[in-house]
């Protein structure tokens, strides 16, 4: 008798410090990095992301020792950018990117997740700039992201994957499509975060089927539709929305991950699928049982 569960043999599953409530390099509300590494390995994951630069040891030799003895490997680093501000922010951007890219490469990873800057503060909700870009800002965003993709590839041998994110300018289906249409596929790929895309009204399966060649990386996440409806109605910023529990444990939320994984497998390319359940801040004993259950759920999906 054969199993009905598909084998997702092109999907490499991992998790990230984010799933342990880690948003900052150093914060008393976060678990120590040693505990994160112990627990992510204990939950059955082999791949991790670096998380906020400075949370994990930034010395490659030490980090290699700490990860390898736990059977862990690094899939990507993460950087934050405000490239719609144009060439004026390039030097500041590169100063932030270069150290993280160097560590990412030293750890054997091939991807750099690029998160656009927030238009409102994720803690206070204070509006920092207009939520809509001007045509000139769109042109700057596209040109500077292509420049980042070229520089990161030439200097560090990494591929950038841009992460559509709530409360940024690359968020909805319309804006994600506009961004992809404006950028060179050879230089710019997408990190599709299923939770953020659903948060902003998008359909992950449709995006994968429409822009398959641009999908370079996945973040697996779900939103609670009832809490999301409240958050949207009340115009709650992303940080406080996470505090309300808008990002929930799979398979309780949307989108359903089975069809997303099936669509990703059908692309016939190797893809990382990194679990990220935003939970900042959270009690220190909360993440590990969730991580174990989530890993079990993904195994039941064939991943």
UniProtKB/TrEMBL annotation:
InterPro entries: IolE/XylAMocC-like (IPR050312), Xyl_isomerase-like_sf (IPR036237), Xyl_isomerase-like_TIM-brl (IPR013022). SUPFAM superfamilies: Xylose isomerase-like. Residues 37-281 form the Xylose isomerase-like TIM barrel domain. Transmembrane segments: none annotated. Gene3D superfamilies: Divalent-metal-dependent TIM barrel enzymes. PANTHER family: HYDROXYPYRUVATE ISOMERASE (PTHR12110), INOSOSE DEHYDRATASE (PTHR12110:SF41). This is 2-keto-myo-inositol dehydratase.
């Amino acid at each position: 008798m054969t199993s009905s569960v598909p084998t997702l043999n092109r999907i490499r599953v991992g998790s990230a410090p984010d799933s342990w409530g880690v948003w900052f390099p150093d914060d008393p509300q976060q678990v120590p990095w040693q505990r994160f590494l112990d627990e992510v390995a204990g939950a059955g994951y082999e791949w991790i992301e670096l998380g906020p630069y400075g949370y994990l040891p930034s010395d490659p030799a030490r980090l290699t020792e700490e990860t390898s003895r736990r059977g862990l490997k690094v899939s990507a680093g993460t950087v934050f950018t405000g490239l719609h501000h144009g060439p004026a922010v390039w030097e500041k951007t590169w100063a932030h990117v270069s150290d993280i890219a160097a560590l990412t490469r030293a750890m054997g990873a091939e991807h750099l997740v690029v998160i656009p800057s927030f238009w409102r503060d994720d803690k206070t909700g204070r509006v920092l700039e207009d939520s809509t870009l001007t045509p000139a800002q769109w042109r700057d965003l596209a040109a500077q992201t292509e420049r980042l993709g070229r520089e990161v590839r030439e200097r560090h041998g990494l591929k950038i994957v841009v992460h559509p994110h709530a409360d940024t300018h690359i968020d909805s289906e319309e804006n994600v499509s506009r961004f992809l249409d404006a950028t060179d596929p050879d230089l710019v790929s997408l990190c599709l975060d299923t939770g953020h895309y659903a948060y902003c009204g998008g359909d992950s399966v449709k995006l994968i089927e429409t822009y398959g060649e641009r999908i370079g990386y996945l973040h697996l996440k779900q939103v609670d539709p009832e809490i999301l409806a409240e958050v949207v109605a009340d115009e709650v910023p992303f940080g406080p929305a996470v505090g309300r529990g808008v990002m929930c444990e799979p398979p309780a939320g949307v989108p359903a991950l089975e069809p997303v994984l099936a669509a990703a497998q059908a692309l016939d390319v190797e893809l990382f699928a990194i679990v990220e359940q935003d939970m900042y801040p959270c009690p220190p004993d909360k993440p590990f049982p969730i991580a174990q259950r989530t890993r079990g759920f993904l195994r039941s999906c064939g991943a």
